[in-house]
Amino acid sequence: MNFSRYTSVFDPYQRITEPSFLKISVVPVGSISIKSFEHFFNKLKQIQHISHNQLLLKKCRANNPNIKQGWERGFIKIQYSKDKAIKSEWEEFQPHKKIWALVGIANSTIDIKQKKIRKDLTNLISNNKKKKKKHKRNGNNKGDIYQPIVRCFKIQNKEDENQNKENKEQKETKNKKDQKPSIFIPITDDDQKIELAIKQIVSDVVENLAQIIATPQNNWKSLKVPFKQKFSNEEQKNSNKSQAQYYKWVADHCLLTGLLEDARTHYNKVITTTNSSSDSIWNASSKESIVCLNILQNKYRSKEKLNQNVIDSYREILLIYKKKKIEILKIEAALKFSRFLLETKQIGNRKIGIEILYDLYSNSPNLEIDEMILLYLNLASLYEIIGFKRKVNFFFSQIAYLFKEKGNWKMLHDFILFSCPILNEINIQQISPSINQSTSTSTSLEFPLSSEKLSSLEMETLLSKSTNPIEFSNKIKNTKKWINIQIPILFELITASSNLEDYLKLIHYIIYLLLNYRSFLSESFQKKLIILIEKASDYLPLTTRININGFPTILEYNLITKNEEIKLNKIITGENENQQNKSDVFIFSPFAYKNKNKNKNEIEVIEYTENEKINLSIILSNPFEFEINIHKIYFNTNSKQFRPFPISLTIPPLTKEFNCLLTGNSLLIGDVFEICECIIEIYNLQFIHPIKINKKIKIIKSKPLLKITRIGSSNLNLFEGEYFNTSLLFENIGSKPINKIEISYQIKYDKEQQITENSIYQDFYLPPVLSFDEKLIKSNCPLILNQKFILPLKWCARKNLKKIDILIKYFNHSKPLSNLQKKIENYNNHHHDDDDNHKIGSVDNNENEDENKKEDKNENKDDTENKNEDENEDENENEDDQENEDDPKNEIAQKNEIEDENDIYFRISKIPYYLNITSGLSLMNFSLIKPNSTFLKDNYNFNNELKSFISVLELKNFTNMKFHLKIKILKKSENYNEKSSKLIKNEYNEYNKERDGTNNQTNGYNFSEINKINKNSKNIQKLSNKSLTKQKKIDFQMNNQIFQHCEKRLIFPIQNLLIAKQYSSKIPLEETIENFIQTIHSIPSEEQEKKLSQLVSLKSMLIERINLSWESENNRRGGIFLHNLVIKREHFDILTPKTVDVQLITQENYNVNQLQPLEFVINNTRKQEIKVQFNIEIFEKEKILDYLPNSSNYINSKLRKNRKNIEKFFQKEPYISKNLFWMGQTIRKNITINMNDSFSHTLYVSFFEPGEFTLRFNCSSLKKRKYFFISDKKTIQVK
Amino acid sequence: MISTFMIIGKDDVPLYEASFFNSKKQKEGSSHLSQFVIHAALDIIEEKVLSNENFFLGVVDNFNNFTVSAFVTTGMVKFVLLTENKNVDSTKAFFNDVYELYLKVILNPFYKQNSPIVSPYFDKKVREKFSK
């Protein structure tokens, strides 16, 4: 039998002491404000206990002798409720459920008729008038005892009080006449008066109660109880059951009126009478009340374990209800007892409480849906007391599913959110359960948890930790974790919001589902969900804003500033880290902690000129298996004048990183703002992604703005000595022309180099590390708007180079003031000092930062940015000056000067290059050695002929690359004076003429080739093309321009003193030392010989350095320099066989004043005739006394000096020259000596004085460019 | 009738899950509810462990004719079985058998503690034991 159908009220909120409370319902009447109603209700609530002594009881004391005992001590407990009173069928069995008094609170200003009010209020007691039956009792003349006392408090002001007194008196007299008490009780905001009024009402109630208690059993009729049919009067009177029911009836009312002892005696009577009979329900109910009495009389402390007897008796009671299958009584009893047990917070009690609760839902109780909801709500609230979060959530979800059965989507949605609070993070709007919400539904639910409690619950703990979506991102085979719970819950939310036509929530839930559980959803299902979003978005207003991260996920973003290296900002920064981690698990920030330590107050200000584009690079990701079509993506700032340029994108499925560049600009000069959010528009929805960049953007007046773009990498990995070309692109993106650009660079070495003679020498003679064409810069200035040019930079890698900063200064004025220039220099110095702190890899040095450093200081001073951008800079400069210049007068003077020049300013950009120099090929040794040791004679003069020599190179290859090698021998240029350079030029002219004459177009002495060339001169070009590499062709061209570069870098023909075979051969891999030996096997022709001798003579004077150039297989080129190469004569003492021989034949004795012969012999062993000239020199004791002049135009400079000395000597001592000796026959010019012939000449000499003289006979070729000079020397004795 | 067996490790991480169906129709249905009931029962299991010396806790929870039995190892790994079968002895025997299997799993040096059990052998054996 289902007893639940008897009940219309299921009261799960009962407490175990509930039977002792007198229930008074308080309702608003008329148009009273909620505030004043609540105010008076709270005042009423304070009056909870009224002792019997205070009650104005009149009749009951006299009439009821039964209750006289205990009357003095007892007190009435009152329970107020705001609920609408609903007629319950259990009121007679459980009198505490009955509302004994109905109190209305009305405003005094409204004139309400008594009858109407009475009617309205009584209607409140029961909604169902038809079912209402009036029970008239015998012996009760007062009418229906079940009718509650109805009163209405009329709120009055104190001022009105006096006026109303008269009216009141009048009314009272009228009422007395009518014999009907007035239901209106005028009250003011006075506690005492309210208390008095309540006491009056309670007195009336207790009067009624006392009458009931005093009702003798004879006059008593059976109760109307839902589980039992009525007995006939006769049966009632005689049966034990009827007697038991009467005792219980009296006992219940005794309990309500606070007569505890009376109640106990009556209950005991019930128990004794029902023990024998089968009327176990009455028995159990009485026992239940006795437990209540026990608890009331022995106040249990919160941590005290309940008496075992009480527990046992209660278990017995529950068993009885269970046996009788009266679900309502069982559930109510179980709930109120377990609530009492759980609230005591004693472990033993708690354990029993859990057991009782467990019994409650274990066997699915046969209740209607509304009752089930109530039951589950109470179970959830009870489990919440002991912190069983998982149970709470489970019951919430069950409630949600029950609401689903009822088709109440709103409650389904709300309760699912309670059951899975992590979903609240979706944060569409604050959804919290309230009375209004629940009353608006068909059931009269009151949510057991207050909203305060709910908000205090921690998200993680309310559900199990494993429900955290972070763990779901790791898809593990065979384990689905708790997704079996979570995905269905999300589905329910989606269906609920769809049924509620709340499309915004629908979209949120779908996106949340996609983001967190996509790995568990099939591709087709994901696509279906996307279509659902698309459809739902049609119902939403245009561009609805949605605050959900991760769709699509923004991985990183970065404000791209001018010339700055890309430095990525991770999304999470500082304090928001934890929150963001919660809200979006897909954003991972390894730098989050790093950022934490940063000082947040340091906000950079970046300047942009008006109309300049602000670029923000964003990396998006699409983890889904469908493509995301972004209708618009743009970023927003907190400036109203900002104008973004949205772009549309399509991100392909499963894209980890998708880069895009967003732009926008601001039109307002002086505007300072920050980038705050990125907005992505998809399907008519705006997804807001907050962005935090620690940089402010300031819009300044247009300036000439030089955009410098580095073409090529900033990191150069070079081999030592390698040549490398990069370039810089200059572009004026500002609004004014740039009149002057100055470029300088600063070299930083790896280690502090010790300054030695060698290093200075090396730096001086090496090609510059960086070279560029200054003329190109000058030719491009002024650089007008949007004009651009490329400046090639030529690098020459040097050892220990670490970093080169290219400083580019540009001015709007071609001639900056001198003091301004000075300031710029100071600024530079200051600037450089700062930079020294930076290490390799730091990319902080850029134009903007440098400027920002300055302008940060002066931001506060900027009152009129438009006017005095330049002045600010000037001030900055002054600040810098303060470090360098201590003279305040100077400073002021300079300031004044600058102020006159309003529009002059400069900017400095800094382009860093990082060089990584590794050793590639290095030259260990270079020397020219003689091929044959037999020629190694000391007396061989360098100026003699050259026939052959050997060059030895010792090279080291440090790499795993192969190189081609080529040797250049270069001139030292700078040290040469004009004379020498002229000499070189002349020599070259001559050389070239000769070269042209012999049709020798090879610019080198590659002897083996020359031989070939001579045979077939027409094929020279072909041959050279064949045998020589590309690089050699370049050298050809260089030869044509040789004079232009003569002073700087003279390339001699000897540069190609190459090894013919080995020229293109490779240096073997990983060979540490490789010798290249050049030997000249064939004897050169006379023509070649001439040239060789010329070259060698030149070489001896000019060659200071040797350059070896190399080329690797991948076309990298470079050179090795032979620094500090001092070529001594010995090095080039390259000897040839004597082809012309000279002999001086003298007699053994010479006498004074006697002509005696002196013979010269010149032997020509050459294969051709020679033309010679000769002379003779006579010395006495190392002093030259005279010499035999020849007719040659050529005079050795050394001899010429000597000649001057001689003349001086002759002038001092003229006799010597005349008297010393006499020469007979003098010189002969243009002597031609045939091949293999000899020439002899006899000279007759007479000496005037005796002594020892030295004779030297010199013979040289007649040509201007003599190529031999031979002498012979002998000493004679004159007697 | 649907029966679900789960092994739940530290921090409520499910290590293993097996559902036993009598018919195909059941397969479509309420694995959602059974997991939810097991999840809710963890509260009571944790409460009961404190006052129980045995591994086997017996029937710990009950919902709509389903009983939830639990077995907690010394490492606080919970074996939870949701079934309609109320035979305590057979449930206890099943738990003991699974415990032996579980010990073998954790003895495996390649098994990381509190990580999901993905061994097909284990799965096969558990299903065999259940069918007994």
Automatic annotation (TrEMBL), chain A:
Residues 567-684 form the Trs120/TRAPPC9 first Ig-like domain. It comes from the Eukaryota. It is found in: Golgi apparatus. Residues 16-216 form the Trs120/TRAPPC9 N-terminal domain. The keyword Mitochondrion does not apply. Residues 123-144, 157-184, 827-896 are annotated as: Disordered. InterPro entries: Ig_TRAPPC9_Trs120_1st (IPR058565), TPR_TRAPPC9_Trs120 (IPR058564), Trs120_TRAPPC9 (IPR013935), Trs120_TRAPPC9_N (IPR058563). Residues 128-139 have a biased composition (Basic residues). Residues 870-886 have a biased composition (Acidic residues). Residues 157-180, 827-841, 851-869, 887-896 have a biased composition (Basic and acidic residues). Keywords: Golgi apparatus. PANTHER family: TRAFFICKING PROTEIN PARTICLE COMPLEX SUBUNIT 9 (PTHR21512). This is Trafficking protein particle complex subunit 9. It comes from Anaeramoeba flamelloides.
UniProtKB/TrEMBL annotation, chain B:
Transmembrane segments: none annotated. InterPro entries: Longin-like_dom_sf, Sedlin. GO terms for biological process: endoplasmic reticulum to Golgi vesicle-mediated transport. This is Trafficking protein particle complex subunit 2-related. SUPFAM superfamilies: SNARE-like (SSF64356). GO terms for cellular component: cytoplasm. CDD domains: TRAPPC2_sedlin.
